[in-house]
Amino acid sequence: MKSFFSLALAVFIMSPVGADETGQREVIRLSEPVEVTDAYEVFGSPVGEVGDVTRLSEVISREGEFLDKQVRVSARVAKVCQKKGCFFVAQDGDAVARVTFVDYSFFVPTDSGGKDVTIVGTFGKKELSEEKARHYASDEGSNPDAITGPRSEYSIVATSVIVPKT
Q1: Cβ(118)–Cβ(164) under 8 Å?
Q2: What element of type H or E holds 151?
Q3: How far apart are CA 125 and CA 68, in angstroms?
Q4: What is d(CA 117, CA 111) in angstroms, rounded to the nearest whole number?
Q5: What is the pLDDT of residues 72-117, one digit of tens each?
Q6: What is the rounded CA–CA span in Å between residue 46 and residue 23?
Q7: What does pTM read for this prediction?
C-alpha cells in the first residue's frame, strides 16, 4: 500500500498543473469575446474596422515614431500567461513585446500561443525590475531563476486583441 501511495504521489507531482486526463493543459478563458465571427474572436473592446496593420518588427525598428502612440500591430503569440491569460509575449522575427491589457480589464485564452493576432493598443518601452521579470517568467512557464538583474522591454497596453479561431 505504501508503494502504491508513493507511485500515486509521484504521478501527481510530475503531472502538468491544470492538465486534463490526456496530459493536455486545461484552457482557461476568463474573458468572453466582445465579437465573434467564423474566423476570429475579439477580446477587450470592439474594434470595428481595423484599418492599416503594421508588423511588430516594423514598429520596433521605428520605435521613435511609435512610442506612446496608438498602434495596430500584427504578431505571433510566442508565450501566454498560463495562469489566466493576463499577458502574452508577441513576436515578429527577432522583435518582441509584452502585451498587457488596459486596466487589467480583459484576458486572452491560455491556448492563444502560436497564433497570429492583431493587437490594438499603446506602444511603449518599459524597465522591469528583476522581481517583476521573474514573476512574468514564472507565469509564462519559463524558469524565473534564469533572470538576473533588471530588464528593458517593449510593451503594448492593448485595448483589443483579435485572435483567430484556428
Answers
A1: no
A2: strand 151-164
A3: 8
A4: 13
A5: 999 999 999 999 999 999 999 999 999 999 999 999 999 999 999 9
A6: 35
A7: 0.78
